[in-house]
Every structure is written in C-alpha cells, then in structure tokens.
Write a structure and sequence with these properties.
This protein is an all-alpha fold and about 150 residues long. It has a single domain, classed as Four Helix Bundle (Hemerythrin (Met), subunit A). The chain contains 4 helices and no strands. Helix 1 runs antiparallel to helix 2 (about 35-65) and helix 1 runs antiparallel to helix 4 (about 115-140).
C-alpha cells in the first residue's frame, strides 16, 4: 500500500462516522439521552484522531502524485484546493474533538456538560460534516491512476 492509498483509505472513516454521529447526536439531544450523548462524544473524539492521521498522510500522497506523468497544472490546482479544504476540516475537527473531550471529562467528574456546550458541539459537528463531505468531493476530483 502506498501513501496515496493509505490517505484515501483513512479519510473515509471520519467523513462517514461524523455525518452519521451528527444525526445520532441530534436525536440524543432531543431525547435527552445521556448515554447516547456520551457515545457520540466518544465517536467525535475518535473521528478527530482519525482526521489528524488522514490530514498528515495528505502531503505524502501529494509527493507521490508529483512523480506521475498525469499530474499536470489542473491536477495540481485540484490537489491544492483539496489541501486547503483538508486543513480547514482538520482545524474544525480539532475543535470538535476538544469540545467532546471537555464533555467527556465533565461526565468523568460527575457533571453533565452545560447546554451551550452540547448545542455548540452539535452545531460545530453539523457544519463540519458538510465541510468534510465537500473536502471529500474535492479529493474525489483528483485523478488516481495508481489505484486503478
């Protein structure tokens, strides 16, 4: 498995998991189900870790792509657009992961997270899910002959 294949394999997890967890988290907030909220915080934290790994494998994939004949100016521009979106997604996921960690630490101390924190995490996760999906779309526009 080369670096580009590793990057592609890793990015799918956080994108799908975050989007599905946003739906579950919204239901957990509406139902006031703390157990489901705790699970969602843990999944968001896991997504943040996976996103960090995926983000840092991106430059390796870019270096590999530069060696291919098909990597022209158009592909370079697409890859750079994807990298910028990836950086934005990574920063957002760090914020989501930190908020989720704060919520989980609150539970560990016997306190449920405050309502503004819960709804703030939900809002960040919702916006971030859309950003992750768009970042994935941008990445999908990059030609990948090495995996065909």
């Amino acid at each position: 498995m080369n670096s580009a294949q590793l990057h592609i394999a890793l990015v799918h997890g956080p994108v799908v998991a975050c989007a599905l967890t946003v739906v579950l988290f919204g239901l957990a907030l509406c139902w006031q189900d703390e157990r489901l909220q705790k699970l969602c915080y843990a999944v968001f934290l896991g997504c943040a870790v996976l996103t960090a790994v995926a983000y840092y494998t991106g430059p390796w994939a870019y270096e590999l792509y530069e060696t291919f004949d098909w990597f022209n100016a158009e592909m370079k521009a697409r890859t750079e657009d994807h990298a910028i979106m990836g950086r934005n997604s990574f920063v957002g996921m760090v914020l989501l992961g930190l908020g989720s960690l704060v919520a989980l630490l609150g539970y560990a101390q016997g306190q449920a997270p405050a309502k503004p924190l819960r709804w703030g995490i939900f809002t960040i996760a919702l916006v971030l899910s859309l950003l992750l999906i768009w970042t994935s779309h941008e990445g999908g526009l990059i030609r990948r002959l090495e995996i065909s």
